[in-house]
Amino acid sequence: MGVAGDGRLSHDLIPGEKGPQDACGVFGVWAPGEEVAKLTYFGLYALQHRGQESAGIATSDGDSILVYKDMGLVSQVFDETSLGSLRGHLAIGHTRYSTTGGSTWENAQPTLGGSERGTVALAHNGNLVNTVELSELVKERLGGRRSKGELARGNTSDTALVTTLLAADPEQSLEEAAMDVLPRLRGAFCFVFMDEKTLYAARDPHGVRPLALGRLERGWVVASETAALQTIGASVIREVEPGEMIAIDENGLRSHHFAEPQPKGCVFEYVYLARPDAVIRGRVVHEARVEMGRQLAREHPVDADLVIGVPESGVPAATGYAQESGIPFGQGFVKNAYVGRTFIQPSQTLRQLGIRLKLNPLEHNIKGKRIVVIDDTIVRGNTQRAQIRMLREAGAAEIHVRISAPPVEWPCFYGIDFATRAELIAPGLQVEEIRASIGADSLGYISEEGMIAATEQPESQLCRACFTGSYPIELPEDGHIGKHVLETLPIQVRTGHDASIQHRPQDTVPSRDGQDAEGVSLGLSGGGENALLHP
């Protein structure tokens, strides 16, 4: 992790270094007679890797909904007392990394909304790209009525907008409202939501983020990843389909399709985001990562003595590289298994000492050896630079870096918070220049074709925008997009021959012919030509 939205530090090797931040995790359960709050707690615990900023659970006993949420990890937010107060037969839960709206208590989920028909609680994984349009729709639907609920309390997330829209019409049931609102949303979303009696789950028509359905002996469960279902002893039934909404109550499960499916699953789930034991579209994520390592060895062989993976995400690919190359696999780094989010910023003196909270090199394994280091991505390069320096200090004779994803060159607007394009190391640099920048003896990235083949998914059904700049869900042409779009004045961008552009001084401004300030083609599709302006 890196610096949180509020400036607090996490436990990265380089204090302040911002890596690719995880999407959120959602969980929902309908199970009369079960301790649904505790089931949700353990489900969220299994999804903790998808967000570490805040966590929350909502439960209903059929008459009223209770919500408990706070900043921090799942294990920090909840205890026996708080879980004991959350009674009922259905629940939803959320663990958050912020992709729209800052990391504040007001933006923690589940969000709440209400009307004369009842209460709605909602949790969201993903990111909507028509947030400003939805904000205008909220004003229209409220018809001059004063904002209430989450929006009135300062929630600046796209989730609060959706919650408000679901509760805006007192004449509609929640199910009817959802079938009206869901087709109006653009972007990536997996929702779990509920009223006092019914659990709902919905997935965007592109199925960008994963969402799975499971069965308990006395109920049903939905979760961002299959591993969370297995953690609580549920059997995996299937994925919630793109463009599908399911409803679960005392009458059983029913399915509605609110849009035609156009699958574009996020390839980065296979590379980094999902747990290795997750299964997405029939492919075990761990197996995909091992195969990426094998493919790396085929594409970028090297004479070396030891293959090591950067814990934890680089280890499966390192296993595959070792298997394919015949070079022994070993441990090169020791990871502190107990380091959590730290809010203490090291002093300059401690920085100069090279404080290492997360990783230390295993010197006796490394000294005098030619090392192949496998990692999943290079974002800014600072982390790899520090790792290579540590390995050299530990006596490595040669260091060959292999990356199990292509170069990340574009920001994601569908639920992953990468660095801005200006901060990414890959745009504008050749591989050899990146190698020199991080100090490696050689550097090789997997090809896009090799990565896709490892997922065993059709190329046409994968979103690869962070590698290609081709965004499958059209982005707003006017620049109304970004993590803090509801908190700050948006950047206004108008394209066309007479376009005028208003921007902050630090922004890089694309020219009228689809090139950046240095004349490099932006190579974007679908409303993305101003992506350099986006956070």
Automatic annotation (TrEMBL):
Keyword Nucleotide-binding (UniProt): no
Keyword Glycosyltransferase appears in the UniProt entry: yes
Record's compositionally biased regions (Basic and acidic residues): 496-506
EC category: transferase
Residue segments, region Disordered: 496-535
Pathway this chain belongs to: Purine metabolism; IMP biosynthesis via de novo pathway; N(1)-(5-phospho-D-ribosyl)glycinamide from 5-phospho-alpha-D-ribose 1-diphosphate: step 1/2
Obligatory cofactor(s): Mg(2+); [4Fe-4S] cluster
Reactions the enzyme catalyzes: 5-phospho-beta-D-ribosylamine + L-glutamate + diphosphate = 5-phospho-alpha-D-ribose 1-diphosphate + L-glutamine + H2O
Binding positions for [4Fe-4S] cluster per the UniProt entry: C266, C412, C463, C466
UniProt xrefs under CDD domains: GPATase_N, PRTases_typeI
Active site (UniProt): C24
InterPro entries: GATase_2_dom, Ntn_hydrolases_N, PRTase-like, PRTase_dom, PurF, PurF_N
EC number: 2.4.2.14
Binding sites annotated in the UniProt record for Mg(2+): S313, D375, D376
Keywords assigned by UniProt, alphabetized: 4Fe-4S, Glutamine amidotransferase, Glycosyltransferase, Iron, Iron-sulfur, Magnesium, Metal-binding, Purine biosynthesis, Transferase
Manner of cofactor binding, per the entry note: Binds 1 Mg(2+) ion per subunit. Binds 1 [4Fe-4S] cluster per subunit.
Example GO biological process: purine nucleobase biosynthetic process
Role: Catalyzes the formation of phosphoribosylamine from phosphoribosylpyrophosphate (PRPP) and glutamine.
Family note: In the C-terminal section; belongs to the purine/pyrimidine phosphoribosyltransferase family.
The protein, known as: Amidophosphoribosyltransferase
UniProt lineage: Bacteria, Bacillati, Actinomycetota, Actinomycetes, Micrococcales
Gene giving rise to this polypeptide: purF
